[in-house]
Design goal:
Two copies of one chain form a homodimer.
Chain A lengths: L18 H4 L22 H8 L7 H5 L22 E4 L4 E7 L13 H18 L12 H5 L2 E12 L8 E10 L5 E9 L5 E13 L5 E2 L3 H10 L23 E7 L14 H9 L4 H6 E10 L9 E7 L12 E10 L7 E11 L5
Antiparallel strand pairs in A: 1-2, 2-4, 3-6, 3-9, 4-5, 5-6, 6-7, 8-10, 9-12, 10-11, 11-12
Helix pairs in contact in A: 4-7
Organism (chains A, B): Lactuca sativa
Protein name (chains A, B): Acyl-[acyl-carrier-protein] hydrolase
Subcellular location (chains A, B): Plastid, Chloroplast
Chain lengths: 367, 367
């Protein structure tokens, strides 16, 4: 076969990195569902936005209403970067919206926003939603006052993402997010990214968050007072993207494998939680993706499972296996599937840090 | 001596990385001036803003005027991240202002914006000012239509920066910039960063830009049509920060030197110019700064001279010398001076990529 096709029968159902907390979810993996990477199922935002009467499409009038009086219209040029960012809660605080602009330092050599940029914005919107809901406060690190009492902080356990189109420098985009319970001790954050000019949905994502004790660095149950706050904003809907619960396939592990050893985190990789931020894992995984793929393809969809945290002092190995039956990865496939592994590069400790899958499509111009 | 004190007599006057273009500037180094790192002289923004009647202090009314109608006031919490970003030209297009918010992924373990974040925002504002002045256009990479005809792009040659206070997550800040000629083939971009809430100036910077031919990768003179456009927006004032033209001091090179070899750029370090972005040089320099300094001190001022570009395929060495006469860098000095060198780690090619100086002060809480 040219690309990996996995049927329901081959799916390991209990593959969550945090089985005690995550797999009991009523929104978790659905027995019998197809989990092909190419067919990560979308619960269309539009279908349930109608039910909630929430403005899932960007309201162009609202965007235009942003204080243009500050800008002298005589001086406007057609190529001006119309850059602004506002946020608001809608529908009884269950949906949170944020508008912002893609910046020059967020785009790569091909002039489109990087996958890390999109993940940064997803993370920012998720955090601001929590902040606005009282689940995160200034002065308490990355958590609420109640979480701080128990030395707890938020960490991401899993993310699934589908990118239909990458925005470019100067594009004004709107992130929209809503949260659902994921088992007793997990939160599923659903996010969409729209182009404010066209209304087009660019990115869809579902990420799963749990709590970690900052002293023991172990996962923790949700304190009752935190759960009570969360339940006020939960939307009782399944994840936007159906969970892909496949594990790293050993049978495919040896197909055209690429390894990058001795990877070292930088100071700038550390976040407010004193560890390497989950977004940086993606950059480390990309280090083992062959140049020919990076330069000619772009990530269309991605599933990342986070198992361990690490810091500046750790040295890592990054693995990428290309899931084709052809050893020549430079062939002009329209789609390339990869699986990834990030683990410690320490004598006696090769523990897994992250496992993931990516589907790449040819960039425009390479077709 | 405890810290490096350099007098005017010891300054090498012609130390610009691009001597053909940069040193003929009428705003260049001033003979006889003191160039101590601790006394980088500030041309106070306030002194000449009065002359221009430009609102150098943030106008709180303007900030408040930004479409708060989008946000339901009943839902406002005191800890809401009031996040927005607008831009405008003032004073006949000679001064450009941009308001934005510090995001979670832009702060480090100590919860303040990183030095790279500040440099990213300086770069973004500089680029947007050029874009708005017709000196940079979408579809022509990092340059204008006229530059594109000559295969030219903008590159930064030098930056000097003084940080009075680092903003934190959620802070709304305003960047303000104006440009001056720097010799015939250089532009000096002057920038200040204000806290929108307090009006306090947080950061001052002067950066110097030249043009590079994207085919030959060599520096280029300014085409006449580009110079004509630039001259329309130039402000005939000296740089905000007086140029520090000292070279790497060989006599101090061996004092308490720290080396980090085998540094590899990542895919995410590459920018629209297909090379490692100038902001990423800082992250690579920080890799050779001892942990005890990174954790206990913060950069107060910085001068970086850029000599060469490099890409993902290059391997680098980063050097930091601590300029004290005490070999124990963990001593509780209030101020620590360092000099830095970034160069290729290639057999037969140890060319310098960047030289720099930093002054660090104890973080709050470590005093």
């Amino acid at each position: 076969m040219a690309f990996m096709i996995t049927t329901a029968s081959s799916i390991t159902m209990n593959s969550s990195p945090y089985p005690n907390y995550m797999t009991s979810s009523k929104f978790g993996c659905i027995p019998g569902a197809m989990h092909e990477h190419e067919r990560i199922k979308l619960k269309q935002a539009s279908s349930w936005s109608l039910q909630f009467k929430a403005p899932m499409k960007v309201n162009a009038t609202k965007v235009d209403a942003i204080d243009w009086s500050m800008v002298d219209p005589k001086k406007e040029s057609p190529n001006m970067v119309s850059d602004l960012r506002v946020e608001r809660m809608i529908h009884d605080d269950s949906i949170f919206q944020e508008i912002f602009c893609i910046r020059l330092y967020e785009v790569g050599p091909d002039e489109t926003a990087s996958i890390e940029t999109l993940m940064n914005h997803l993370q920012e919107t998720t955090a601001n939603h929590m902040k606005k809901s009282g689940l995160m406060h200034d002065g308490f690190g990355f958590g609420s006052e109640e979480m701080s009492k128990h030395n707890l902080t938020w960490v991401m356990a899993k993310i699934q993402m589908i990118v239909d189109r990458y925005p470019i420098w100067g594009d004004i985009v709107q992130m929209e997010t809503w949260k659902a319970a994921h088992g007793k001790n997990g939160v599923c954050c659903n996010l969409t990214l729209h182009d404010c000019k066209t209304g087009e949905i660019l990115v869809r994502a579902s990420s799963y968050w749990v709590m970690m004790n900052t002293k023991t660095r172990k996962l923790s149950k949700f304190p009752n007072e935190v759960r009570a706050k969360l339940e006020q904003i939960y939307v009782d809907k399944p994840p936007l993207i159906e969970q892909d619960t496949r594990t790293w396939s050993k049978s495919e592990e040896k197909i055209n494998e690429h390894i990058c050893k001795g990877l070292k985190p930088r100071w700038s990789d550390l976040d407010i939680n004193q560890h390497v931020n989950n977004v940086k894992y993606v950059g480390l995984i990309l280090e083992s993706v062959p140049k020919t793929i990076i330069e000619n393809y772009e990530i269309h969809s991605m599933t990342l499972d986070y198992y361990r945290e690490f810091t500046k002092d750790n040295i890592l190995q990054s693995f990428t296996s290309i899931l084709t039956n052809n050893s020549d990865e430079t062939s002009n496939y329209d789609i390339v599937d990869c699986q990834h592994l990030l683990r410690f590069d320490i004598d006696g400790d090769n523990s897994n840090i992250m496992k993931g899958r990516t589907r790449w499509r040819l960039k425009q111009g390479n077709k």
